[in-house]
Amino acid sequence: MNHIPAVTRSLAAKGIDGMLISQIRNVRYLTGFTGSSACLLIAGRERIFFADSRYEELSKREVRGFDIIIEQYERPKEVLEKAKAVGIRTLGFESTVSYAFYRSLLRKGVRVKGVTNLVEEMRRVKSSFEIKMIRKAVERAEKAFLEVMPHIRAGVSERHLALRLETALKKQGCTVIPFDLIVAAGKNTALPHAKPSDNRIRPGDFVMFDWAGEAAGYFSDMTRTFLMKGGSDLSKKIEVYAAVLNANMSAIRSVRQETAARLVDKTARDVIKKAGYGDYFGHGTGHGVGLDVHELPRISRFGREMIRSGMVFTVEPGIYLPGFGGVRIEDMLLVEKQGCRILTSLPKKLEIL
């Protein structure tokens, strides 16, 4: 799908006559370029792609519809010279750039103006190709996890399981691991973003896995939590798990077109609050997934956007009790005209291993 016309149509409304796209995921979205460093200059009918000499051959293979410039000196100078040459008076740039990059754009001849989320807002609604790749990423993630699941037992360390899972993901075809995998056991599950350690699984522990797959640059994201046999406080652990599962399923049922994202968050949050654990669910209920693991839309109490058909996002409520443990259950959803489709398929019913 050619997204460039949508970019050019938005320029006048933002008070600019040209746009510099430098966020590499946005560059990939607009061109298909898979390298790690490049930028685009878009103005009227001008389509210019900049990269350094490392990517000369790759850009020729992957980039179509752009004039390709292989940089001979620093990128901001190249961009500004070309901007002046094509008659750009006010150049928009992505507000996520570093301060150093911004300073380097401040040269005579071209005014610059920060622009927020121009391409990111386009990326919220996925094309059929993007949905296909996200489904593939989910499939790879789930197959990898099923290879690791038989190894979840008392005495095994978090780090050991994380390494097994990372290896399994690569065997399934994931060229990159989207984020540092979360494998946590026991009290560590009370840390929403716990890092795998030498901590070993013990009887009665919660064991949490938060992991992701990849396909053609698109990602998945999911979390499952298990309970080991034995230990103490079994009834409370079952109660906590049930509250999170209820919140997860209730939030999913609330997803439909033209629903405010914050209402999906509220649905999950109200369930957990009613169960008596409202103070122990601090993060948002979900986030978009695509070329980034965390992108628009944001499913949180602070969100103001409306849910639209074609969006892909997570629903991931959790309860985290310091010194006791935590539970998170995370699924990925595709919004459709009549509701939503759950893309993740691994069971969510509490499994006691």
CATH class of the largest domain: Alpha Beta
CATH topology of the largest domain: Creatine Amidinohydrolase
Question: Which sequence of strands runs across the widest sheet?
Answer: 4-3-2-1-5-6
CATH homology superfamily of the largest domain: Creatinase/methionine aminopeptidase superfamily
Average pLDDT rating: 95
Structural class: alpha+beta
Radius of gyration from CA coordinates: 23 Å
Number of helices: 10
Straight-line N-to-C gap: 46 Å
Compute the number of structural domains: 2
CATH architecture assignment name of the largest domain: Alpha-Beta Complex
The helix-strand sequence is HEHEEHEHEHEHHHEEEEEHHEEEEEEE
Percent helix range: 25-40%
Count all strands and give the number. 18
DSSP strand content: 15-25%
Topology:
Blueprint: H1 4-11, E1 18-21, H2 24-31, E2 39-43, E3 46-51, H3 56-62, E4 67-70, H4 75-85, E5 90-94, H5 99-105, E6 111-115, H6 118-123, H7 128-148, H8 158-171, E7 182-185, E8 206-211, E9 214-215, E10 218-219, E11 222-227, H9 234-253, H10 261-274, E12 286-288, E13 295-299, E14 312-315, E15 318-321, E16 325-328, E17 331-336, E18 339-342
Parallel strand pairs: 1-5, 3-4, 5-6
Antiparallel strand pairs: 1-2, 2-3, 7-8, 8-11, 9-10, 12-13, 14-17, 15-16, 17-18
